[in-house]
Amino acid sequence: MRLRNKPWAVKLVNDYPESVLQNPDPEKKIDWTERFGNDHPIEIEVGSGKGHFITTLAKQNPDKNYVALELQTTAAGIILRTKLEEGLDNLQILRGDAADIDCFFDENTTDVIYLNFSDPWPKTRHEKRRLTYKSFLAKYEQVLKPDGHIEFKTDNSGLFAYSVQSMNNYGMHFDFVSVDLHHEKAEIVEKNIETEYEHKFAAKGNPIYALHASFDEK
């Protein structure tokens, strides 16, 4: 969902280039060790929206680095505001297209990729835009470490069914699958970090679908 343009967010993003990379050159890999100032494990959220999920993760895990990959400048600004308020030095914001994820990260450098409430692109002619389409899976496989994995959540049953089939056809392994995440065992529910959309959808009684999947070791 596109956010309404907020001029303050655009200015904030432009004022903090050390925290936000905007439309980097896809021909040049990003030196994330230099950006973060350390070589801690990296986790990526593709399409971070307002950033509640990724900023909460960063706050809970100071020994890990997080990248919010987000195309919208307004969303990037909202995430950045939280980053600055919370002092989250282990969070970087990358304003770019998910289709270029393999250009922004070297091979075998990422531990987890989060796909939370991605656009379902329900029309068949838009299948290639879905973030679980096989061309995206190939890029994730390249970026992830051999023992890395994808964590996916959605409220859209059609996208969930499609994603399960797409990942299965690609030869991925499912480590966790749920068709009603908020009614799983207590320890699973307690560990779950809700996104803004997830809270909204769950409050309406909509089931939340989730899965964790990994690739064959390279």
Automatic annotation (TrEMBL):
GO molecular function: tRNA (guanine(46)-N7)-methyltransferase activity
Top EC category: transferase
Catalytic reaction annotation: guanosine(46) in tRNA + S-adenosyl-L-methionine = N(7)-methylguanosine(46) in tRNA + S-adenosyl-L-homocysteine
Pathway the protein takes part in: tRNA modification; N(7)-methylguanine-tRNA biosynthesis
Residues that bind S-adenosyl-L-methionine: E45, E70, D97, D119
Region (Interaction with RNA): 125-130
Gene Ontology, cellular component aspect: tRNA methyltransferase complex
tRNA processing among keywords: yes
Keyword terms, alphabetized: Methyltransferase, S-adenosyl-L-methionine, Transferase, tRNA processing
Similarity-based family: Belongs to the class I-like SAM-binding methyltransferase superfamily. TrmB family.
Record's protein name: tRNA (guanine-N(7)-)-methyltransferase
Source species of the chain: Lactobacillus kefiranofaciens
